[in-house]
Amino acid sequence: MNYLRNIWYAAAWSEEVNRTPLARDLLEKPVLMFREVDGTPVAIGNRCSHRFAPLSQGPLVGNAIQCPYHGLRYDGTGTCVHNPHGNGEIPNAARVPSYIIEERHGLIWLWAGDPEKSDSTLIPDLSHLENPMLGTVRGYMDMKAHYQLGVDNLIDLSHTQFVHGDILGSDNYHSSSVEVIQHGETVLVKLSIPNSDVPPIYQRHISNPKEKVDYWLDAVWSPPAMVINDVGVSAPGAPRDSGIRSKGLHLLTPASERSAHYFFAHSRNTKINDPDFDEQIREWHRVGFGQQDKPIIEASAAMMGNEVDPMKLGAVLLPTDGGALRSRRILAKLIDTERNGVVE
C-alpha cells in the first residue's frame, strides 16, 4: 500500500511504552516497543526470526525480549543476543528489524522511511501538550478503516452537526460559513457560526447558556495525517481568547490498509486543574469518538468494500468536501514524488 515513508508517525503515547512489551502493527509491520532498564524506548520487529512467534508474548530480561516459543533473546537493536540451545552459537540471520524512534511531547514517534534520511527536526511541534497553562486530556482508539477516511472525517467540519449534534451541534448551523485555505502542503478549514446558540458542550460552562455567542471550528491538516482543531465560543464580536477555547490534536497512523491507530488530545484554557472536568472531557471522547465517529467511519469503510478512495466509487461531492479533497491531492503528490522523484 502507498504510504508517505520519510516522515514521523505517532506510534504510542509515552505512558503506553514501559517494561511491559507493547505490540502494535504500524504501516503493515508488526512492531514491538518497550523501555530498556534505563527508560530508553526502543522499537523492533515483533516476529521472531526462528518460528515467527510474537515476541511481545515473552518476558523482558534486562534490555532484551525473550521469545516465548524457544527462548531466543533480542535487544533493542533487533540483534539476537542469547541462544539457549546447543553450544549457544547465534546464527547470523537471527535478528529482527529495528526502528528509529524519538520521544517528544509525550509521544513516541517512529520513522517509517530510509534511516539515512531520518531527521528529528521534522517531528511536529506539539509543545502545547506540555503547557502548564492548559488542561490537557489524551486518548487512543483503534479504527477499522483506512486512515485517510479518518482524516476526511476530521476536516469535514459539517459532520459535527449531524454525528455530534448533542455535543457540538448548533441550531444556527444554517447560517454557518465554511472556508478552505491551502498554505503550501497544509490545509485550513474554517467553520464559523456568528450569533449562535450555545452548543451543548459549552452550556454548563457559560453563566447564561441562553445568550448568543460566536462559535467556531477550525481544522488544520498537515501531511500525512495530523489535524489540529481550534474550537470555541466567545461573546459576539469579541476576541477568541476572551472566550472558552480549546485545541484538539488528532494523529492517525496506518496499521494496515483497512485499520488505523487514532491518537487524540484536548487542551483547554479553562478549568485547567479540574479532575472532574478532565473526566467530563474523557466522557466526550468516549461518546464523540468511540460511539459516534468510530461506528460511522467503520460502517462507511465496510460499505466501500475493497476500495479505500471514495472518488474511485464516484462519490457525490458537497461544498464541505473541499478540505478532504485538497488533503488527498497533496498527500498523493507527496507520495508520488517520494517514490518516483516526480515534481510537477
Automatic annotation (TrEMBL):
Parts of the chain that traverse the membrane: none
GO molecular function, one term: dioxygenase activity
The name this protein goes by in its record: Aromatic ring-hydroxylating dioxygenase subunit alpha
Highest taxon listed in the record's lineage: Bacteria
SUPFAM superfamilies reported for this sequence: Bet v1-like, ISP domain
Pfam family, any one: Rieske
Record CDD domains: RHO_alpha_C_DMO-like (cd08878)
Rieske domain span: 8-110
Protein keywords: 2Fe-2S, Dioxygenase, Iron, Iron-sulfur, Metal-binding, Oxidoreductase
Record-linked InterPro entries: Cholesterol_7-desaturase, Rieske_2Fe-2S, Rieske_2Fe-2S_sf, VanA_C_cat
Gene3D superfamilies recorded: Naphthalene 1,2-dioxygenase Alpha Subunit, Chain A, domain 1, Rieske [2Fe-2S] iron-sulphur domain
Signal peptide: none
